[in-house]
């Protein structure tokens, strides 16, 4: 296949090695809907993220991307199959995990510094130390002048920076992100992607980044998972061999990038169309 | 034609901005004065008409009193005391009952609301009993309390408590239920224990609901205390009203009513101050911005 010569190498979904940071092995998850029916959210789902790897998950709306992340946090349990984090089965919410939400999940009654210090304080770090750490992280996301501001006094991009600092301050080994930048405008999003890659390269956590934006996925990831329309399962996996460090504003004009995005889009397109036609039928 | 250098332009712009700001401020002040003036005018016209109608016997001051009669009554209570003792003592007794009832009812309502709001099973089990208890006309309970607890303070406090409890409970419960799920999940993943989630996510996010109920329920506590005194007491504003009523003293009834209204307004003002202090993180509503 021609793809061998390109930066996007199609991988075969293999059984997860035991030392992976995240291993989702043949998982099916069904919800009981309020009217008592069973509804399959994801089926036969297998995914591995190696330590320090940046994985992106793309797929049409409602295909089970958020569900996948919640399996890793332990907020949802698989109906069949198993999920391992750092080699251990998921039982409780792990201290190794950080999560950046799509919606604004900051505490609106806390100032920026109180929001960022929340993690260490919850985990029992002494107050002075927690606030020192918080000040440091606020500085790293460039918001030192806004320590005392409340979230409603900040722009959307600044609130996202606070959310990143709030998550990174716990130095999570596993970083889960659920369409974190989808509500931002184009320029802010590009800036946030650079910010994220900068923070990530300092920490080398293993990342699962969910998005419905294929270009965002290709620009950020080492590995892209394409999911089928719901009930979601892995349709294909691509390794992205674009060199790092990457600059978000430039990478989308890189011919190699465009070529990769085209190949993966061919895969994704029919799923998106399927998802949309199904959405129209069910009225979602 | 002369060229204007950019610095001249900037300076001119700066002065024109200052002038515009001063103008806007003056407009705001003017409007504020207008609102206050109109409010005063309405009060004066209302009291004047009332007094005139009473003087010319268009309405019978024996039944409907008159501003001067009410004022004389209040003045005599202040200077000579009431038939039950000094006026301030009556106010003090009623306020004490109201505050005790308010505090107990509010704390009870908040605690019960949070516990039931956090626990689905308890909520499902108790919801039916709360509905039943809530549908009992609470003022009737006043008689029960007087029989059970006597003519002293306890019966009034008990009535104030039941008046307050259900309102605060309902709001606290709703506030807990509306707490944002993403925010709770965020706290959980950041490392919060269930107790920490309750104290640092659930309670703050239910706070605006709870504070809203405190506004209403202070009035209810006052009603509870006054009705309790009305039904049987040795002291208090409610007794003052019922004594005045027994003597067909319309001036006395109106005077006591006005004193109660002033008490309620003062406390309402204090609660608003407290609320603004507690929820200072909230964005100002649009109509208050820029004032
Ligand atoms: N708590 C739940 N109960 C029932 N169905 C759910 C629940 N959460 C998600 N679903 C369903 O599971 C499917 C996948 O949802 P989700 O993972 O949120 O999709 P995505 O994040 O890809 O848009 C959707 O059809 C959704 O309606
Ligand atoms: Mg989602």
Automatic annotation (TrEMBL), chain A:
Entries under Pfam families matching the protein: ABC_tran (PF00005)
Domain ABC transporter: 22-254
Keywords: ATP-binding, Nucleotide-binding, Transport
GO molecular function list: ATP binding; ATP hydrolysis activity
Domain of life: Bacteria
SUPFAM superfamilies noted in UniProt: P-loop containing nucleoside triphosphate hydrolases
InterPro entries assigned: AAA+_ATPase, ABC_transporter-like_ATP-bd, ABC_transporter-like_CS, ABC_transporter_ATP-bind, P-loop_NTPase
PROSITE patterns attached to this UniProt entry: ABC_TRANSPORTER_1 (PS00211), ABC_TRANSPORTER_2 (PS50893)
PANTHER family xref list: ALIPHATIC SULFONATES IMPORT ATP-BINDING PROTEIN SSUB, TAURINE IMPORT ATP-BINDING PROTEIN-RELATED
Family stated for the protein in its record: Belongs to the ABC transporter superfamily.
Protein name per UniProt: Putative nitrate/sulfonate/bicarbonate ABC transporter, ATP-binding component
Native source species: Mesorhizobium plurifarium
Source organism phylogeny: Bacteria, Pseudomonadati, Pseudomonadota, Alphaproteobacteria, Hyphomicrobiales
From TrEMBL, chain B:
Membrane topology: Multi-pass membrane protein
Pfam families given in the database record: BPD_transp_1
Organism: Mesorhizobium plurifarium
CDD domains: TM_PBP2
Localization terms from the record: Cell membrane
Protein name, as recorded: Binding-protein-dependent transport systems inner membrane component
Segments forming a coiled coil: none
Gene Ontology cellular-component annotations: plasma membrane
Record InterPro entries: MetI-like (IPR000515), MetI-like_sf (IPR035906)
Recorded superkingdom: Bacteria
SUPFAM superfamilies assigned to the protein according to its UniProt record, in alphabetical order: MetI-like (SSF161098)
UniProt keyword Cytoplasm, yes or no: no
Record keywords, A-Z: Cell membrane, Membrane, Transmembrane, Transmembrane helix, Transport
ABC transmembrane type-1 domain residues: 91-271
